[in-house]
Amino acid sequence: MEQLLERRRRPSAPVRLCLLLGLLSSANANQFECDTPTCARHSNWLPAPYPNSTDICNELQIKALQSFVSVAPQLCREWAANGLGVWEDCRKSYCQALGDLSSNLSHAGTNLYYGGDECRPLVNFNQTLCETVYRDAEGFCECFCPSFGLLQVPSVGGCESKIYEFLFLGRRGFELSQKYALSGYCAGFLCEFMNKLGEPDPPYPIEGIPGKCKSLELPWRVEGCVNLVSEQPYNPEAWKTPYPEDNVMECVDKTTHEVDVRHADTMQVCNTHKFRWRCPNNVPVMCKDPYYCTGDHCCVQTVDECPSGEREASPMLALELPEWIGRFPPDMIESLRTTTSLDAYSQFLGSLGTTSRAPSFAQQISDYAWAGSAMLVVIGLTCSCLACYYMGLINTSHVRKVVLGPARLLNAYHADPVTFFASGNLPRNKKREAPLPPMRPVHEIEEERRDNEACAALEDAWDIASLKGMRHLVGRANDPDPFQAKLLRDAISIARSRGLQVRAGVADVLQKGEKWLSTLEAERELLRAVEEARPDLRWAAQVRLTEAPVVGKPWIATTMFKMAESEVRSSGWKHIEDLRAAVQVAESRDISESHMKEAQALLAALVARTHELPSDRCVLDPDGEGIKLLPKGHQRAVWPITGDTYTYEQGSSQGGDMGVDILPPKEVLGDAAVDDARPVCAEWAKSSRCKAGRDCPWRHCRPQAGDSVRECILFDV
Questions:
Q1: Are 604 and 660 found together in one domain?
Q2: The last residue of a domain, from among 292, 317, 342
């Protein structure tokens, strides 16, 4: 609520109207009157010839997203939840962020801009027009902002931030649409949101939808909207390019159908294929009304045949809007056309004559009005002069006494420095007589500046890292570190080297950053252990892993066979121990649930399929729950002389007491479940059904690599 109370005041409606009238006062040819034809700072922009131009463009985009996208959705939801309606500063903040981005892209205020083709559309910006006539700013703040509570996006996947970035920057140019492109998965959530806002006649109306949403022409049909938003290259007006063949219509599901424009029944074919996507080449124009032709947009030959005009892209999705380059938007052109034209009846009334009337009193004296005005001016000047003369006579004597009389001489005497200092009444100011504080040395000031820079760099690095997310930071073990990790490591290293962890607020950021880095390392180690252990599924369930070196000679009963088998299984068990250690470390971190479930399932499968668990890695559960696995680095041994058992840590020269197993804490002991080792039911694997149901002794699942398959046989008792 503090942010709600500390809001800035945006220009009121009368002020915005005055700004707009000033731009329209001398406008012509459907264009605003500005210093440049496009109403931008310069009309002829040239790319800045600097090697870091693209990096500057990217950094400025990140800064603009942080200044608006990171705070606007939350403020919009808070205002709506508290019943305050539209966030009051939404449009001003929206335009201010884009205005700062546009001005910073200009090199020292010149017509050189950073970023090449990607940032070229961003410099065509006028903040006054944005706060008055930009339809995308109006739609975002008057429609989307108070309705963000209806945008339902899962917390995982990062779709919510990608949607906001697409709505703020992704629509402002072709290159930006590729950079901030939405996947079909994320586009589905945005299109469901638009369906709630833009459907003209919903079967279940939602209360509180702003009326502005209906005029934005949002693509409210979900399937068509997903194609429109997620297809690359991005084209928000795909229907304006008709299908290249006559009498062939393309539907949203990308199927094509032959139609006959003379028979309306054949034109309904797309109603069962998620509605029309592109019209045939011989009727290329798609009309605006979504219900006019059998519940869908009409396809006609010319725009004049459309009752409500041609279908246009929504201003919330369009790559170009006329007001961005200083031209009137279509609704303003239509309103000017309506207010300046006369209908037939008004023209008829204008042609009628009027009845003559007698001249009024004002008309009769208008010829002599100038003489009366001149007389009043002369009388006023005369009275003013007389009043000034009278007041001068009264004050002359007082002025003479003060300037030339005894009072003047007495003041001069008291102001004489000799008389003043000789009197001994010199006032003293102890503060001015006190010594000045010592000047701070240059190195101390420099150290303070570097400390402030290190704190600011740490804050920026954490903000950038948090945009990446708090988990699911890597997808594979060999993926390179995200660039956010290097920024955060460097910032933390500098902050700790300068001893800034004792500052208020810095310790919290350091803790968050180190937790983020530890989560990254835990996920990477877990994925590395999973990738190393996964191939073991193919041989873990096998009884024998080695072949006889000489065919026909005894092998299985030999000591060499046992040594070879033990060596192979020891290498495989090392992968299991590494995986268990990585899982235990990951459980203490807030890592991705999908990575954790995959690793736990793989670990359970490997343990269950191991034909013989190593005796030196297993102990009895102290609570009587079967066999437990020792953690990595702990082993169990038998004293060959007495047969007593003891436990010890690898690399240590000392062990536990004879006959007493001093076990690690129970939470670090592993389970030795064997359910995954049971064979798979052959009948279930073939038809996904089993006549025995729950009585079947085998597993009902799809067989995986290394699984054995058995027929289900039941005996009647």
A1: yes
A2: 317
The confidence score (pLDDT) of residue 369 equals: 75
CA atoms within 13 A on the CB side of 178: 7
Residue found under tokens 């959705």: 73
Last residue of a domain, one of 483, 518, 536: 536
Specify the amino acid at residue 684: W
- Chain centroid to CA 258: 43
pLDDT at residue 356, rounded to an integer: 47
3-class DSSP state for residue 600? helix
DSSP per-residue string spanning 631-643: PTTEEEEE-TTT-
pLDDT of residue 126: 92
State the Cα–Cα distance between residues 609 and 539, nearest whole angstrom.
9
Same domain flag for 527 and 563? no
331: Cβ–Cβ under 8 A, 6 or more apart, which residues? none
Q: Are 475 and 520 in contact (CB under 8 A)?
A: no
Q: How many CB atoms lie within 10 A of CB 537?
A: 16
Whether residue 415 is contained in a domain is answered as no
| One-letter amino acid for residue 490 of the chain | D
Three-class DSSP category at 39:
coil
> How many secondary structure helices (H) and strands (E) does the chain include?
24, 14
Q: Looking up tokens 């539907």, which residue turns up?
A: 251
> What does the alpha-carbon distance between residue 144 and residue 218 come to, in Å, rounded to a whole number?
11
Q: Are strands 627-629 and 634-638 parallel, antiparallel or unpaired?
A: unpaired
Alpha-carbon distance 278 to 290, whole Å? Answer: 14
Dihedral sign, Cα of residue 407, residue 411, residue 416, residue 420: positive
Q: Is 148 helix (H, G, I), strand (E, B) or coil?
A: helix
Cα separation, 277 vs 249, in Å, equals: 8
Identify the domain containing residue 467 by its residue range. 445-536
Is 293 domain-assigned? Answer: yes
Which amino acid is present at 435?
Answer: P
Pairing relationship of beta strands 285-286 and 256-258 according to DSSP bridges: unpaired
Judge contact between 136 and 210, C-beta under 8 A: no
Q: What is the pTM of this model?
A: 0.48
Helices (H), 405-554: 406-414, 417-422, 430-433, 442-468, 483-497, 506-533
Mean pLDDT by 10 residues, the chain (717 residues): 35 44 52 88 90 91 92 91 88 94 91 90 92 92 92 85 92 90 91 91 87 90 92 92 94 93 87 93 94 90 92 92 89 69 53 53 71 87 89 77 65 59 58 75 88 90 86 80 86 88 85 87 84 71 58 66 67 75 79 80 73 69 70 71 71 59 68 67 85 78 76 61
Integer CA distances (angstroms), 79 to 72, 83, 167, 182, 230, in order = 11, 6, 20, 28, 31
Which tokens in the block code for residue 536?
């073991």
Distance CA 341, CA 182 (A): 45
Co-location of 571 and 646 in the same domain: yes
Contacts of 10 (CB under 8 A, 6+ apart): 88, 89, 91, 92, 131
* CA atoms lying within 13 Å on the CB side of residue 59: 10
Query: What is the β-pairing status of strands 618-620 and 627-629?
Result: antiparallel
pLDDT of residue 343: 54
